[in-house]
Amino acid sequence: MKCPFCDELEDKVVDSRMAKEGEVIRRRRECLGCKRRYTTYERVEEILPVVVKKDGRRESFDRTKILAGLKKACEKRPISTGTIEAVTDRIEKRIQEMGETEIESRVVGEEVMKELHQLDQVAYVRFASVYREFKDIEQFMDELKTLADQRRDH
């Protein structure tokens, strides 16, 4: 592992611990060159599907896009970064469990919508307005009405 401080390639592992319910190993390392310590995370390389976009283009699944979309929707809401990371983990895990080699971007968007619907209704409406490409205030109001009706029923 290359030291992030001095680029030395030799280090020693000082401590290893499981993290994220055993899905990640956290390692504290000490550089043998500059003696500074740093942390690395090790996880199993997961086989994730190729995402088929609306226009037919294909691109590799990218969890950072989900994370960025969630962060944008949750901006200025009382939602911690840890919660957003956990939501991203759950979405990624469900997509991986589908076992598909290709998945439509719509499926990813719907997974995000499901999570946001449970997490925060303002963040949900923000995401929905972009994801569903609301063209006018009526579409926006229809979504709000549906949300309000669901809330009243529960």
Protein model, in words:
It is a single chain. With about 150 residues, this protein is of the alpha+beta class. The chain folds into two domains: about 10-45; about 50-154. It has helices at about 65-75, 80-95, 105-120, 120-130, 135-154, and strands at about 10-20, 25-30, 35-45, 50, 60, 100-105. A hairpin with a 5-residue loop joins strand 4 (about 50) and strand 5 (about 60).
Which features would summarize this protein structure in a list?
154 residues, alpha+beta, elongated, three-stranded antiparallel beta sheet, 2 domains
Q: How many distinct beta strands?
A: 6
Low-confidence stretches: none
Rg: 20 Å
The N- to C-terminal Cα distance equals 52 Å
Task: Give the overall form.
Answer: elongated
> Any idea how many domains?
2
Beta fraction:
15-25%
> Structural class from helices and strands?
alpha+beta
Fraction of residues in H or I helices: 40-55%
* Quaternary structure of the protein: single chain
Question: Quick summary of this structure?
Answer:
The protein is α+β, with helices and mostly antiparallel strands. 46% of the residues lie in helices and 21% in strands.
Present the secondary structure layout.
Blueprint: E1 11-19, E2 24-31, E3 37-43, E4 50-52, E5 58-60, H1 63-73, H2 81-97, E6 102-104, H3 105-119, H4 121-131, H5 137-153
Parallel strand pairs: 4-6
Antiparallel strand pairs: 1-2, 2-3, 4-5
Helix pairs in contact: 1-2, 1-4, 2-3, 3-4, 4-5
